Amino acid sequence: MKRPELMSPVGNWEMLKSAVDAGTDAVYFGVKNLNMRANAKNFTIKDLKKITEFCHKNNVKTYLTLNVIVYENELKNVEEVLKAAKQANIDMIICWDLSVIKKSRELGLEVCISTQASISNSSSANFYKKMGAKRIVLARECTLDQIKEIRSKTNLEIETFIHGAMCISISGRCFLSHSLFNKSANRGECMQPCRRKYLVYDKEESGNSMLLGEDYIMSAKDLCTINFIDKLIEVGINSFKIEGRKRSPEYVFTVTKAYREAIDSYFKNKLTEEKKQQLFGELKTVFN
């Protein structure tokens, strides 16, 4: 059984160093505008070479996210970023817009299809394989049994999220932020209206009102798989992905370190229930 890759989110140099110090195998990050965390600090094109030099020196792979919807006037910008990524020796591009897939392959860049593509079956997976994809990120709605079945029907690398924020909408396809604030989630600009307090009132009869906030009924709890990480390893997933490019360096370090220890313990036959609970306790210190 192959040891899965552990991938950490980074949005600035402090987060990058925290991920490397915690023992990550790979990092993913964006440059300004063309990624699903447009509101994060993000890096610039000029940072790419320095990032890869630092990461490769520490045996860490680098994955650049260009996973937003791309408009006509942005095609030149996409090409500019991808050429810079090629020159900087970026290991893989995470994307789903066909224009990005096409240009990446033309430049000889490896491609991972983003969760935004909502891949939830082997037929879709193998379609992207024909387009030159090396890896797919499965839709976060897939169950363990579904992942297992997809794994048996494709030889593409499979990546899944193991920790971090979840969206109430299927694979993040939400239009609430766009409707309320003209900030599209599918352009990385989500204002997270689902995580706000709302006043609900009876307009027709009593006029009574309620403040909804304590339970945040539209906001999904964060994903945490530490208690069944062994089952995910045994399914044959190639890469475990931590969400959180807008979080703190402390979050990145703590979460990466916990899952690093869990994976290593599993392959040493030391991942006991007691060990899982210890690591779960550490994760709760940065758990939403």
Structural class: alpha/beta
Count all strands and give the number: 11
How much is the average pLDDT?
89
The 3D shape can be described as globular
* Percentage of residues in strands: 15-25%
> What's the SSE pattern?
EHEHEHEHEHEHEHEEEHEHH
Give the low-pLDDT segments.
Answer: none
**Widest sheet, order of strands:** 1-2-3-4-5-6-7-11
Largest sheet, if any? 8 strands, parallel, barrel
Number of helices: 10
Q: Whole-Å distance between the termini? A: 32 Å
The rounded Rg comes to 20 Å
State the helical fraction. Answer: 25-40%
Please tell me about this protein's structure.
Helices cover 36% and strands 17% of the residues. The mean pLDDT is 89. The relative contact order is 0.15. The longest helix is centred in the C-terminal third of the chain and has 19 residues, at 249-267. The protein has helices at 13-21, 48-57, 75-87, 98-106, 122-130, 144-153, 176-181, 229-235, 249-267, 273-284, and strands at 5-9, 26-30, 61-66, 92-95, 111-113, 135-137, 157-164, 198-201, 209-212, 223-224, 239-242. It is built from 10 helices and 11 strands. It is of the alpha/beta class. The strands form 2 sheets. It has an 8-stranded parallel beta barrel, surrounded by 6 helices. A two-stranded antiparallel ribbon has the order 8-9. It is globular and about 65 Å long.
